Amino acid sequence: MKLQRMNRRALALGALAVSGALALTACGSDDTGNSDGGSSSAGSTAAASDIKCDDASGQLQASGSSAQKNAIDAWVKQFAAACKGVQINYNPTGSGAGITAFTQGQTAFAGSDSALKPEEVAASKKVCSSGQGIDLPMVGGPIAVGFNVPGVDSLVLDAPTLSQIFDSKITNWDDKAIATLNPDAELPDLKIQPFHRSDESGTTDNFTKYLKAAAPKDWSYEPGKSWEAKGGQSASGSSGLAQQVTQTSGAISYFELSYAKDGIKTVDIKTEAAEPVKASVENATAAIGAAKVVGTGKDMALELDYTPTADGAYPITLVTYEIVCDKGNKAETLPATKSFLNYIASEDGQGLLADAGYAPMPAEIITKVRETISGLS
User: Fold this and answer.
1) Count of domains in the chain?
2) H or E element: which one contains 338?
3) Signal sequence: where (predicted)?
4) Would you say residue 304 lies in a domain?
5) What does the pLDDT look like over 278-320, one tens digit per residue?
6) Model pTM?
7) Is pLDDT above 90 for 236?
8) 293 part of a folded domain
């Protein structure tokens, strides 16, 4: 199977890279990722083999998705070592803010966990002279549901129960609905503390799309980057949510798997499959493989299936897009933009993802992405 071969290749290449090569140079952000240390020379050589600096130089400003920050960190570390004349500044402000900055001409590209809306495409035409913004799927992965319940190491939830938890209709951890799904767990009499994003977020968009698709009777809100449900508490960025789960007894929240560290436990999701599905790179890859390309022209927006029935397909997945002008990119940033995007779409660039907790794009998708990048002007 192509996806399995892609995933095995990603794991093998990722093993050559430094585990935790995730410190982003020149990124003034408080949305912290992993920082486990340096890299071996063998890893740097392997990861840099697909880097072609060409005429790339100067500073490259980008912003957006915090979901992909840990992946960007790993990529920038390798790219900066190979192309010393380029400084890449990626600010994980959230997908909504990233798209706004891009359409206002403040950045060379944006990261977004949701594809451009028609009005955003229209706005992009003002900065992409003779062209428009397009979606290039680059990073995949599961949205993990992290929890902090003393005495509970394993937890199974389904879409209706998650919907009621995040809509403040189920408020205690020993609720009957949770107990029914977890007959062997000793659930405490403890208040549930749900946390959601305070900023506009593609992660929120994808999470609420899942709730709406899988539990339409229990989730009455329209999906979107902004949180609509009442109640709960909020925090900024994926790292902010992960921090709240770590330090708050009774907490539950959603964030990318790469943020589920420092002992954070994640929920197994009950689907129509025989067994509940764990949040893992492999299971997210299985789900992304069923996505359909719905973008037109050079745009590669994908339609994800939030209600998969196959065994081992994790239903709460997202794809992060790099958003760039197909034509009309600024002359001073185009060489660096193409050089960096070419690298992260390469086998070596995609090969770093599994080690960083992300799923590489399926071969048939990433091949089209590479072709599109080569034609950027």
Assistant:
1) 2
2) helix 334-345
3) 1-23
4) no
5) 999 999 988 888 889 999 999 999 999 999 888 999 999 999 9
6) 0.76
7) yes
8) no
